[in-house]
Records
---
Amino acid sequence: MTLPHPNMDQISLPIVLGVLGDPTRLAIVRYLASKEGVPLNCSRFLDLGSKTNLSYHLAKLREAGVTRAEVVGTNRMITLRRADLDARFPGLLDSVIAAAVDDPALPAVGGHDLEVPA
Amino acid sequence: MTLPHPNMDQISLPIVLGVLGDPTRLAIVRYLASKEGVPLNCSRFLDLGSKTNLSYHLAKLREAGVTRAEVVGTNRMITLRRADLDARFPGLLDSVIAAAVDDPALPAVGGHDLEVPA
DNA sequence: CCAATTGTTCAATAACTTTTGAACTAAGGA
DNA sequence: TCCTTAGTTCAAAAGTTATTGAACAATTGG
């Protein structure tokens, strides 16, 4: 019931960079960073692709050690592994996120903010 | 006689990350960083692969905007585009290089330091 | 001019990555 | 229990990337 994650010292620089070298995954990371602290479930990202495709990209991010996925009922709550990444590769995540925030070519998540109903 | 390079505003974050997401190319960048200021020709990197394969990887780095290649006689002198990368993605190159320096899994360049003969 | 040096290009192949749809599992609510 | 919601797995197809060797081009030095 818990999903496999690398532990901190198993996180590899080339693998992390390779995984981040994809617009869909960079958009996921950017969105996670913009909602840091809030755990988000997978369907939050459906703007970026089909359910199956997101399952694939989210697995890549998790297996690389970029995100953590917690199983909560039928949901998987996704968070950035910021502390681990900062410890392993100081400054890397911050600079990637800062650059991603400014990148108009990346696809966007959101629009249909279902919260705050009335 | 001059090779094609993207100009600074054409350098793309996902492409740069993708290109750096390869151990051979990361090793090239790490070595360039360790010799910053010194322009190096391609054969400096032959420890990392065949001539043909290096030509491929060096072209990837150049086309992504990570390196600059100047034609000098029959040599191509390779340098990191540090100023451009720092301006476009502040902190990114520094954090990647710092992490690469500490990565024992990356292949190494050097050993046969031909300089300083006697 | 000839030969050596430096690096590129080309075509082939091998190996990986991305995307898709259909089928599936697992939990939760009516 | 049955239905819905959330997400995974699998296999196939499509696309991309990495690696190789042989052939090529350009410059330099003898």
---
Amino acid sequence: MIQLIRGFKDILPGEVELWQHIERTAQAVFAAFGYSEIRVPIMEKTELFARGIGEDTDIVEKEMYTFEDRGGEKITLRPEATASIVRAYIQHKMHADDPIRKFFTIGPMFRRERPQKGRYRQFYQIDAEVFGIESPYLDAQMIYMLHLLFERLGVSHTQAHVNSLGCPVCRPNYREALLALLDRVEEQLCPDCKRRKSRNPLRVLDCKVPTCRQAVTEAPAIVDFLCGQCQSHFDVLTRGLTQLGVPFALDKRLVRGLDYYTRTAFEIQTTMLGAQSAVAGGGRYDGLVQSLGGPPTPAIGFAIGFDRLVEILAQEQSVAAAKPAFFIAALGDAARQAAFQWCAQLAAAGAYVEMEHGDKSLKAQMKRADRLGAAYVLIVGDSEMAAGKAMLRDMATKEQSELALEGLVEKMVESLSGRKAD
RNA sequence: GUGGGUGUAGCUCAGCUGGCAGAGCACCAGGUUGUGGCCCUGGGUGUCGUGGGUUCAAACCCCAUCACUCACCCCA
């Protein structure tokens, strides 16, 4: 048997309803804040991600699906959406018309990591980005929007974490101070952290190895090194979150894995995903648009791990599958031929209807109707056809009434609209 | 990429020291010649993940491989 690719998965009927529900809820929330949907390709030139995400990140170094196409061009299955959206913003010169743009997109991303719970090689993200606004009020609003969406979805057991990563002015000072400490405690660090120390020292802060955590307890906090502007940006953000009633935790250890982040960094964390802690994460990336060839443009965005969100919600709630309004139980060929036509007409009128296509006993058809959860069963056999009447059974009350075959479909549709009222 | 665990029916799982592949639920049929849920009876629907090896004999032992899963790494 041919199986699907490792780390990929099918989203089957029964679970796809929850995905749709989340998507609709997200679209509604985003629309209220003025975000427009944008759809970008799932492949880009490799260079876009290499430059956008950062050559030294794990994503670019070892997780991308990169290959040459038949023309010899190096292309990559997108590992995240931000780079593509920035590329589109620049390429279509959207800044020229109106530099302030708010986007969202929903779709698959690809990273070749070892799969486990909450982590797949093809996974889905709900992504939002805003260009052209530098104000920390926007940062707070965006986190609020995320908070609101989670609330609407009924997600519990989550906590927002925020931090500031500084900017090109103040981060070097911090980096220096941190490196000084790491030099002193180097022998206590795990091998990974020794490697991180030279490449991306900030990452040592969120290492989970106990000896590393111990070693960096004395580490300086980046928030103590912020320049005046970054400090006031961060102050307005945290005050704004309080004003909007978003519960959050200041997390001095919160560091993000991608190179482009500046100032605000945030995550929504949960304890419900085993080793995975983040359901959503994002931050400000004021330098990225320019570094990819656009005009200097402040920007901020976040990504929600769609699969992770589904996993959390699936543990708490389920979305019922649609149930047919009618099931037509036909006995005999003449009745089946009529039923087959009524079925088409009812569906065309917008009623969800099912029928039995095989030659089954009435009992078997009733069982199937019951199993599907049909509200009404229309029973029609030779005697009904001869008498010009069919039997309509209310499955809940077991009441049966006779309906003339004349104008049958219209009457059924009518009874349906009457029923919708309750 | 590293280490551990698991893989038997549609689902959840049992299967001893190697000796005819099982249970519950689900499903199908009948009981009721044209009426669902409850009940009764009958039915196994299977490449024991896959490929090799050992053996008279393998679901069971050995090797490889694939998938899932947990931890690491990292992130959404």
---
Amino acid sequence: MSRPPARPDDEAAFLAAYDPREFPAIALTVDIVVLTMRQGRLNVLLVERAAPPFQGCWALPGGFVKAGQEDLDEAAARELAEETGLSAGALRRVHLEQLGSYGAPRRDPRMPVVSVAYLAFAPDLPDPRAGGDAARAAWTPVVGLHGGGTGDRQLAFDHAQIIADGLERARAKLEYTPLATAFLAPEFTVPELRAVYEEIWGEKLHPGNFHRKVLSVPGFVESTGETAERGGSRGGPRARLYRAGDARLLHPALLRPDREEGVR
Amino acid sequence: MSRPPARPDDEAAFLAAYDPREFPAIALTVDIVVLTMRQGRLNVLLVERAAPPFQGCWALPGGFVKAGQEDLDEAAARELAEETGLSAGALRRVHLEQLGSYGAPRRDPRMPVVSVAYLAFAPDLPDPRAGGDAARAAWTPVVGLHGGGTGDRQLAFDHAQIIADGLERARAKLEYTPLATAFLAPEFTVPELRAVYEEIWGEKLHPGNFHRKVLSVPGFVESTGETAERGGSRGGPRARLYRAGDARLLHPALLRPDREEGVR
DNA sequence: GTAATAGTGTCTATCAGACACTATGTC
DNA sequence: GACATAGTGTCTGATAGACACTATTAC
């Protein structure tokens, strides 16, 4: 596709037609819902805000987009690297995708700010480091986070909604993609994979049927020929080890149980 | 969720920390992929640009977001109404959802512009009206549009990619939602519904199996008790009429045939 | 009449899920 | 030894798709 070069005339014409009252200054940020599994529980990365607004509240990691210097995906990857302190190599094992954009008129009390939210699936990562305008950064268990219970950390802006949307996207993605493996080490067992599904879907799955199903989907996992060092935490034989396969979509998909309810 | 009111201090502090070189001015637009069925073919709404850049090229309808005055969804609905000339009532029958955001560094040669793309499914609509910076507006058959063939209209910016992403989203949505009915009149026949699937998926479906499948999915369609005025265009009995049901998701889903290929 | 279509019946291969069972580990 | 777990076998009900068939309509 050919693209005409920028000409000063164009920009001048554009700026002349630009009415600041109709199009006031707007800021663009990326915010990232980074999900990981720690001790078998789903965690999300949060930072404590050191400055107003929402000072002292917890928020998603993120920052302003360097307009014109980076693509949105690059901005998200940059913020992710900055907030987690991950090397470029470790980042390659993290799945990152765009979740959606949020632009309610007064979601930021200072000025119009539109946030492009991203969703990341990561294996167990080291503790994050605080930095920039964050007082602290911490992995936070997802359970109860969006329920509004008394123990909840108060979330800034509309980040509770963004997290809820990210969790729903994650639940759906496990159905038809092999991305559950992104939460695990490069080599993993089928019971470990099942634990990821059970934690994110919030439901116990049948061990035998799950095992057979995973192995029957072409390209989901491939055997390493090895077995785990130890058996299950409470006994049982040592499980076989697998790597992620080359499939990008699961056929047939692993469907969540129950979904008859809540469909209407 | 409590939200502190905007305080002048906050804004001043923010602007003081704002480095224009690091965060140059950025503009935000919404662009809409409006899909409809006309004479049995899938069409997308395009406008011809009357001003540089890409003067004379065709582009998606859209415009600048009125920052701080409207949500992104509202901006998309407003642009859709402006470009199609639809009444508020007619707009209620149009499905509108966010598709994704596009922010490659020099996608607009004038200045950094991030576009929040939306996807709309509409029944057969009247001819659009041109307006604003559009010389013309026209429904354009989708076939061959993204193939880069000789007959293609040259598309501005990255709109060819946005349309391709919208089409892929549409294909997926037909699988697990009843949104194919959004392309049809309030009352429709099963063969008409099948024609929508065949056109968007680009595959012929088995008439008998499709018919039984649609009626077996709870809440997909509900009978009106009436039958169509005429039989098929080339003969056959008159089909029964249905309305869209109350399901928001299809269970079980209507899966596309073939997908074994291209999965890896 | 001819040909195409709407809709139903039927058969088969596949799949999801329930249940049973053995072998192998932890404690 | 007690008990939980990994993995396999088997059965059943649901489903997708192929095929056949009848009735109805346009031309």
---
Amino acid sequence: MPKALGRDSACSIARSLEVLGDSWTLLIVREAIVAGATRFHEFRDALGVAPNILAKRLASLVDDGLMVRRTYQEPGERAREEYVLTDAGRSLSLVVAALGEWGRTHRPRPDGTSPRFLVETSDDPVRLAFVDSRGGQVPPERLVARRVPDRERATEAIS
Amino acid sequence: MPKALGRDSACSIARSLEVLGDSWTLLIVREAIVAGATRFHEFRDALGVAPNILAKRLASLVDDGLMVRRTYQEPGERAREEYVLTDAGRSLSLVVAALGEWGRTHRPRPDGTSPRFLVETSDDPVRLAFVDSRGGQVPPERLVARRVPDRERATEAIS
DNA sequence: CTGCTAGGTTGCACGAAGCAACTCAGACTC
DNA sequence: GAGTCTGAGTTGCTTCGTGCAACCTAGCAG
């Protein structure tokens, strides 16, 4: 976690990375989104992460509002803890999908696996794409990037 | 950088994070994509990163094939180094855009700025979206995630 | 009352991050 | 031709987070 840009940079990417900068965090989120993991041991077994690190990361995710910690109890079992994604956490699926597509394309492995996102009702696989205001897809080569104040979007919508 | 999943995990996201896991790396890429930065001092001044860290990150980016280091010389100047994104580096725009949208939505700031991607010819702003095989947009709530072997995509295309 | 399992906590060792200071080489100034 | 400015780093030191292993605790099973 870089200290200089740190906690409340004006840049939205820096603010995202403040929460997600640690790579375990994104892997935990990936596991929750893709595999539906909710329990401590599911994350630990799937990722091979040390328990102290996992505890700290899960606590950060709860602090940052990406997950909620809930106590639940199955019949005949004792009370357990589970970690469930919030809306903010679930909406990281765009980031997870982008990372997955990039890794699959630019770091290919013959035996690789990737999270794929499918339409719930039809199992139709989906991709990530840039779309313009009329809903048409635009290839990345035809784009330019520019840093813009966030408020301009509201102004745009009004004017 | 997590050691356990580390260098050549079967998961494409873990492989992406192996390269991008350090948050400085993504901020450097962001700066190159959004601001078009190429020179050492441009990155240092924009990000406030310590020069030893920056030198190490840039070297990693070159090693990993996301950037190339080139010597150039402007007339009347001595030879300088510049760092230019490769295709692999430029295609991180999807990841950068996803992080920017997430930060803008879930970590809003009144004085925030975000990188926006615009269509080169028309200045029309674009968004990131999931699209199905027919090019229609699908909201994230209607998706399920599943881990799938990468090869199945090739098989899909054939069958 | 012993073991088993889920969900952690504690205690070190080591490597990376952060900061400041220094280097080096070419061009420009006087 | 001595000083100086500027870009592009390197070196040294300190501190903080990561990784590993070991330990702890609550409940249920036998």
